[in-house]
Each structure stands twice: as C-alpha cells, then as structure tokens.
C-alpha cells in the first residue's frame, strides 16, 4: 500500500514570521521545508562544494601526485565522473524531497547506501573540525606585530630559513649537503610550535594544547549555531560562506604569481608527466579528490537539493557549481605551486617536489609563506586569509554534518532539531580532539584514506548500480523527463551508464590489486593505526551490506532467487515525488511512457 502524503499549508501560504520558507508535509514524517529561493540553494552548494576540498586538499594531493601529472586525470575525471554524479545526486534529492537514507529506499536492499554516505561524511567532518581549529590558531597569531612563522627561532639553528629575509648562500650550502635538512620557518612553525608534532605515533598521539581545544570548541559551536534552525539558517549563512572567500583567494593568487621563481612552480603544476598517466594511483587520487571537491557521494548535495522546489532548474546549478569548483581548484593550485616555486628559487634548487614535505599540512605551510611576502600590512592579509579558511571550512562542515543530521531526523522525528544537532556537535568535538594532538596529522591522513576516499568510491559504484542496473535506465530517464521537461542528453547517459562505472570499477580493482598501506611523509603507521583505518572502512561497508542482509532475511521465502528478486525489486511505494498532486501526475506520466516506449535499455540509452 502506498504512503499517502498530505500537502502542507506552507505550499500555498507563507508561515507567519518566516515569509521565505515553504513546507511540504507528509502524514508520517516531519514537515519538509524548502529553500527561501533558488539562489539560496545555489549559494549553499557553492559553500559546500567550493571549500576545504579545493583550498586545503587539492594542492597537497596534486603535490604528492606529481603536479601536472595529476591535473590532467583530475580534469578528465571531473568531466566524466564529477559533473554527472553531481547532476545525479542533485536530481535524486530534488525528485524525492527526502534525505539520503530515504532516497535510497527506492531499492529496499540498498537503503544502506545512505548510511554509508553518512559514515564517510562524519569521518571527514571531524577531520575538518581539527583543521579549522588550526586555522583559528593561525588567525589569532596573525594579530602579532611580526608574523610568528616568518622568522627562525634560535633553537632551530641551521635547519631553518626565514620566509622573509632568506640567506641564499646558507640555503644553497645546506641543500647541497642534505636536501632534507633545510626547512622554511613556516614549516617548522607549523610542525614544532602549532602541532608539536611527533616523529612517530608508536607510543601514542599525545594530548592537544588548550589553545587548539578552544579553537575546536569555537568551530563546533559555529556549526551548531548554523544547523540548529535547519535550512532556514543554513540558507542565509550560505551567501557569506560562498562569496567572501573569493576576494581573499584572488588577492593571494596575485601575490603568489608575482613572487620570484613562481613561474617554475606553476609550470610544475600544469606540465603533465605522460608516464604517470598509466599509474592507477594517480587516477584513484583524481577520482577521490573530485568527490572531495564537489562533496559528492557523501550526502550533502542530495540533502541540499531535497529542499528545492520540484520545478527548480537543477541542470543550470550543476553546471555553475562544477565549473566554479574547477576554477577554484586551479586558483588554489596556482597559488600553492607559485609559492613552492618561490621557495625552490630561494633554496637554490629546481626540484619543486623536494621543497617541502607533502601531506595534509601543506596548506598551513605554503599559504602562510605567501602571506609573509606581502610588503604592506601582511598581518591584515593573514587575518583575512585565515578568516577565509575558516569560512570555507564551515561551509564544508555544515554541508557534511547536514547529511548526518537529516538521517537522525528521519529516525527521531519527535526530537527537536537543536537537540539532534547538539548531539552531533558534541560527538564531533570529542572525535575531532584526536586530530589536534601532536600525532593528529597522522590520523587525518589515515581517516582521509580509509574512512573517506575508500568508502566514497565504493558508494559511488553502488550508486550507479542501484539506479541504472537495478531501478533501470529507462525508468530513471522517464522520471528525469517528468521533472526536467526533457530527457538528459546523450553526454549524461554515456557518463552514467558507461564511462563513470567502468572507469571507477577499473581503478578500484587496480587500487586493490596494487594496494600499498598509506604512510605519513614516507613513514609507515603502527599496526594499531592501520587497524583503526580498516575499522572505519568496515563501518562504511557493513552499513550497506547489513541492510542488504536484513532485507533478505525479512523477505526470505522458499526460493533464494525469489528472495533476492524481492529484496532488490524497486519500490513504487517509497520512490517518487513527495507532493501528492505531483506524485499523481508522475504516475500518469510514467504509465503513458511505459506504454508508448517498450524498447528497453538500449533504445532508452540511444534515444
């Protein structure tokens, strides 16, 4: 028997005191609000997708994978995997007006996809919490009369080179003696002062400083304040979260490219190494970076689009956001590699890959390095930059947290929203403490690999399988035509059905076959750390497998084949538009389409 949905009063008249928010209400679920307008959704998506994934993660991923050797696979993946997935998740959310867990109930056995997405999202958002705590530390330090990372301290002696007044002769001498000895004052400040970083975590990860704990509290308090009123407050905050960062990024880019030696660094970034294009690890890094940059396969885009009006032009927004995301990544890349080129010039080397240690801390080394180069009020630019970093982090964290929060709302509809957000924030704060310890950067690397990227690519493959191989391409195209007014073009169909799944499956298999345990700056993790990483991966996968097994047991019969068919049979009861009037029109449209077009999958793909 189908669910009966009642149209909420908010669809026809605006709620008192909240003139820009609409509601759609179902009989058995809490009210579903909508964005105050299409621009709010666009700004929220920009804030979610154009965030730390671009400014923090993209540069160090490109640096670790050879600069230009990574850029070409990344752009290819963006066009044939990233954009189609963004459109797909945006469509699913807008079509169903449901959270990621309820959307995947379209195929009963695959409901666990939503939980897998939420686990990956929460793993990443706790890492972001730690990074934003570091950002606040730098923000406060930027108010000093002399930027504290711009000069060498006495105890660093011959290991250090000032970021402002560099002794080129000493730099060259030390570099020739031992190219691992010389470090910029910005790098040493980050590793020795801010983190007090351990060389190994064999004996534990240490305890965080009170300054970083306080910064972490401010971070999660900010996330709580934005999320506690749901989409109403998220939409309003999105305007600032999306627009402000670009002013600072462009100013920093202009300064970076005018530094001496910057051209060599940028050439390293844009010049491809064709031999590396055959390495599966580079393509794996490109796919996972694409997921991070766009926030796809983690739940936020599906969640945000579920608050759209059914007739919203989602295709237009997809093109705007994905194009802007690419533009932002290129800005961040040129900025970072311009700075690295300047560092290489000052150190008397042409090998950009040896200038600094790679890894998750690269952004906290290279960006401060550039800020120190400003001749006029560098403190002002430092303050603006770290405010920007914090804003970008909040935009990403709010989006990822919303995916987790909405699933909790589905399971606890009678609990007030602010209480659920408070629970998420408290748990997030406690877990994030790990990432601000002296061994925290080790665990950010570990969680990024196992809890984020690995889970995301598994979820992505299963998403494609669920929609196009189980629910059916023809059915999906009918739904898309009903909502959008026309069928998705051949480009979208080719990417969804052929290019994206084959590319991801091939790269996933190659990655598994050639698997090498992740390291931090070339140093392997202790066994207990790898155990934690595999446990995070297990959590994401078991959520999916567990739901499949639960549905098979629930629908078991004397025939195994019939049981499997029943578990994976698309659910007409739980799939479709939420609004009852639109739902009825959709059913009539689909019935007519199926009667008129019985050509099957091949005809649906080509037509």
Automatic annotation (TrEMBL):
<dbReference type="InterPro" id="IPR000175">
    <property type="entry name" value="Na/ntran_symport"/>
</dbReference>
<feature type="transmembrane region" description="Helical">
    <location>
        <begin position="71"/>
        <end position="92"/>
    </location>
</feature>
<feature type="transmembrane region" description="Helical">
    <location>
        <begin position="528"/>
        <end position="549"/>
    </location>
</feature>
<feature type="binding site">
    <location>
        <position position="54"/>
    </location>
    <ligand>
        <name>Na(+)</name>
    </ligand>
</feature>
<keyword id="KW-0406">Ion transport</keyword>
<dbReference type="GO" id="GO:0015179">
    <property type="term" value="F:L-amino acid transmembrane transporter activity"/>
</dbReference>
<protein>
    <recommendedName>
        <fullName>Transporter</fullName>
    </recommendedName>
</protein>
<keyword id="KW-0769">Symport</keyword>
<feature type="transmembrane region" description="Helical">
    <location>
        <begin position="449"/>
        <end position="473"/>
    </location>
</feature>
<dbReference type="Pfam" id="PF00209">
    <property type="entry name" value="SNF"/>
</dbReference>
<dbReference type="GO" id="GO:0005283">
    <property type="term" value="F:amino acid:sodium symporter activity"/>
</dbReference>
<keyword id="KW-0812">Transmembrane</keyword>
<dbReference type="GO" id="GO:0046872">
    <property type="term" value="F:metal ion binding"/>
</dbReference>
<feature type="transmembrane region" description="Helical">
    <location>
        <begin position="41"/>
        <end position="59"/>
    </location>
</feature>
<feature type="transmembrane region" description="Helical">
    <location>
        <begin position="318"/>
        <end position="340"/>
    </location>
</feature>
<keyword id="KW-0029">Amino-acid transport</keyword>
<dbReference type="InterPro" id="IPR037272">
    <property type="entry name" value="SNS_sf"/>
</dbReference>
<keyword id="KW-0813">Transport</keyword>
<dbReference type="GO" id="GO:0005886">
    <property type="term" value="C:plasma membrane"/>
</dbReference>
<dbReference type="GO" id="GO:0089718">
    <property type="term" value="P:amino acid import across plasma membrane"/>
</dbReference>
<keyword id="KW-0325">Glycoprotein</keyword>
<feature type="binding site">
    <location>
        <position position="293"/>
    </location>
    <ligand>
        <name>Na(+)</name>
    </ligand>
</feature>
<feature type="transmembrane region" description="Helical">
    <location>
        <begin position="282"/>
        <end position="306"/>
    </location>
</feature>
<keyword id="KW-0479">Metal-binding</keyword>
<feature type="binding site">
    <location>
        <position position="50"/>
    </location>
    <ligand>
        <name>Na(+)</name>
    </ligand>
</feature>
<keyword id="KW-0472">Membrane</keyword>
<feature type="transmembrane region" description="Helical">
    <location>
        <begin position="239"/>
        <end position="270"/>
    </location>
</feature>
<feature type="region of interest" description="Disordered">
    <location>
        <begin position="1"/>
        <end position="30"/>
    </location>
</feature>
<keyword id="KW-0915">Sodium</keyword>
<comment type="similarity">
    <text>Belongs to the sodium:neurotransmitter symporter (SNF) (TC 2.A.22) family.</text>
</comment>
<feature type="transmembrane region" description="Helical">
    <location>
        <begin position="113"/>
        <end position="140"/>
    </location>
</feature>
<feature type="transmembrane region" description="Helical">
    <location>
        <begin position="380"/>
        <end position="408"/>
    </location>
</feature>
<keyword id="KW-1133">Transmembrane helix</keyword>
<feature type="transmembrane region" description="Helical">
    <location>
        <begin position="494"/>
        <end position="516"/>
    </location>
</feature>
<feature type="transmembrane region" description="Helical">
    <location>
        <begin position="209"/>
        <end position="227"/>
    </location>
</feature>
<feature type="compositionally biased region" description="Basic and acidic residues">
    <location>
        <begin position="9"/>
        <end position="19"/>
    </location>
</feature>
<keyword id="KW-1015">Disulfide bond</keyword>
<feature type="binding site">
    <location>
        <position position="392"/>
    </location>
    <ligand>
        <name>Na(+)</name>
    </ligand>
</feature>
<feature type="transmembrane region" description="Helical">
    <location>
        <begin position="420"/>
        <end position="437"/>
    </location>
</feature>
<comment type="function">
    <text>Unusual broad substrate spectrum amino acid:sodium cotransporter that promotes absorption of the D isomers of essential amino acids. Neutral amino acids are the preferred substrates, especially methionine and phenylalanine.</text>
</comment>
<feature type="binding site">
    <location>
        <position position="396"/>
    </location>
    <ligand>
        <name>Na(+)</name>
    </ligand>
</feature>
<keyword id="KW-0739">Sodium transport</keyword>
